[in-house]
Amino acid sequence: MSLNLDKSTWKRVRLGDVICRSRKQVDPVASGVERYVAGGHVDTEGVTINRWGQVGDGQMGSTFRYVFEPGQVLFVSARPYLRKVGVPDFSGVVADKTYVLDAVPENGLLHEFLPFVLSSDRFIEYATAEATGSMNPRLLWGQMQRYEFDLPPLDEQMRLADLLRAIERHRRELVSGNATLHAFRSLFVDQNLPLGAGMTSLGEVASISSGITLGPARRAMIRTAPYLRVANVQRGKLDLSEIKDIGATEAEVQTKSLEFGDILVVEGHASIEDIGRAAIWDRDDSPLYQNHLFRVRANQSYRPMFLLEWINSARGRAYIRTVAKSTSGLNTINSTALKEMPIPIVTLEKQDRLLRDLSVIDNGLSALSSELASIMRLRLSNSADIFGGTP
């Protein structure tokens, strides 16, 4: 939906003429500064900053000396394509590559409008094109000041800023609600997974096999097939944004392919928290899977989704951590350890009851995700109407 803006009264301005940069420096430890903001604390999707580090935590570099106050705009000049712009409601320090900015209202720019200027597609495209350096490109201050854009009158800036801030508030509420519901889901699973009358093992209720091994010889094979990698398997969900092909024999296509309802478990990962993460294949096509994934195929006495919830639960993850081995910085589990994972003996009726309850929560999560996607599309569309760029 277009805003149908009349831009006849808008004036072309140079960014450096309507903003100023604060370069105030302190020794954060000697001055008693409590918080610092690094690039990782600034989200790419919003214009508010809700995370920080504690001065003295051992993670803060020596260049974190530039003071910011509540309400000032922080722009991370390194890798500007990441779109890291935000406004904190607390004071602290940043490093030299994060600019501390204020609008100059007497020159025509409302401070509340500034973060939306800097997060617009048009500015980010400019910043990315003008950044210098190949490994860690950075938008230098001089080049940033040369950016030109069309600026509405102050009263119209206020109306547009109010609109964009309302969208941002709603986005934050959706993100917060999504995080809260995810946390509730995890707690619900841990508290309601039935322990049953006894325990069995995963190997007793499912067949477990490793996938296809990669190697240079596969490039010469005539037949190819899509296959899933560790990157495709997240905890509780699949990321199918990139699926690669691999050379394979007819026998491998028959024995190393997936079926609807198969569970994929990550065999090795640098992070102990990510080893053993699992997702379910819920499609009708049958790709292969690589040898750093285990395929778990449930028998008729267990629902695949129930086993997935158990593997990803706090108890399942705790078991994985106890049996994992670490070699050269890589945490791994073997098929024997996975087969020995304790599984509660639970009737299909109780499994179905839990899964029905979880489906209600998952429907809520799906609704939140859909609304968040809609609000992001609205924000992009409005930003394109105001500042230019592709909606």
From TrEMBL:
The keyword DNA-binding applies. It comes from the Bacteria. The keyword Oxidoreductase does not apply. InterPro entries: Restrct_endonuc_typeI_TRD_sf (IPR044946), Type-I_RS_S_subunit (IPR052021). GO terms for biological process: DNA restriction-modification system. One of its GO terms (molecular function) is DNA binding. Keywords: DNA-binding, Restriction system. CDD domains: RMtype1_S_Eco933I-TRD2-CR2_like (cd17253). PANTHER family: TYPE I RESTRICTION ENZYME MJAVIII SPECIFICITY SUBUNIT, TYPE-1 RESTRICTION ENZYME ECOKI SPECIFICITY PROTEIN. This is Restriction endonuclease subunit S. It comes from Actinokineospora fastidiosa.
